[in-house]
Amino acid sequence: MDDVFKALSDPNRRKILQLLKKGDRNVSDIKQHFGFTGASLSHHLDILKRANLVVTERKGQFIYYSLNTSVFEDVINAFYSLFSH
Asked: What span, in angstroms and rounded, lies between the C-alpha atoms of 80 and 22?
């Protein structure tokens, strides 16, 4: 769960998740929305992937990223258990 909170702590990674909420995207699609280098984007995507917030699927020569919704359910449950009596 610590990896999830680390991943969510960065506003750029939260923006990536917002983009993926609208549908699967490849790196080129995601990069259009940011002003940083491809290496920085790759680093952010790697953190999201290690936290299991995103999953990848190869389609031809491209790798597409999509949200892993089951992890979001786990996060919601963790928050619920923190604040419930």
From this structure: 26
Region 2-83: CATH code: 1.10.10.10
pLDDT for res 45: 98
- DSSP 3-state of 62: strand
**How far is 45 from 78, CA to CA, in rounded Å?**
23
pLDDT of amino acid 59 = 94
Rounded distance, CA 13 to CA 65, Å?
13
Q: Is 38 helix (H, G, I), strand (E, B) or coil?
A: helix
- The list of the chain residues with pLDDT below 70 reads 85
Strand partners, 56: 65
- Determine the longest span between alpha carbons in the chain, in angstroms: 50
